[in-house]
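User: Predict the structure for this protein chain, please.
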Amino acid sequence: MIEARASARFVRTSAQKAGLVLDQIRGRDVNQALALLRYSLKAIARDIGKVLRSAIANAQQQSGFGGDVDRLYVSACYADQGPSQKRVRPAPMGRAFRVVKRTAHLTVHVTERPLKIAAVGQKPARGKAAKPRVKPVGQARAAKGATA
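Assistant: Here is the predicted structure, written as structure tokens:
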């Protein structure tokens, strides 16, 4: 099973904003995740798409890769907080407000799904699921009236 990762460091966004988009692609197939990122309205989706494409390329370069990109899925993705730049903004009456410009480290892991191989000579299990027994409405009312 092939696993590859890619990361982008010091991306100029907060880890919380990046985490919102990363939560949407976690566990999805890479093609589905790329489509979701392409049409996302969040600005960070473009940077996450670059990292995801890089992780796919890293998986393709590994020895033992089957060659089928459709079997890859996003196994893990997260945004860690990077260093923050502190800046000063003038405020009224001679004061100063602090502006914190946050950065994040984005990481995406992709993994190859194992092939599903059916056992030879075995039939898939067939059976009816037991239905729960429910009293018809009329009988339930009659039973209530009899006891009360």
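DSSP finds four helices and five strands in the chain.
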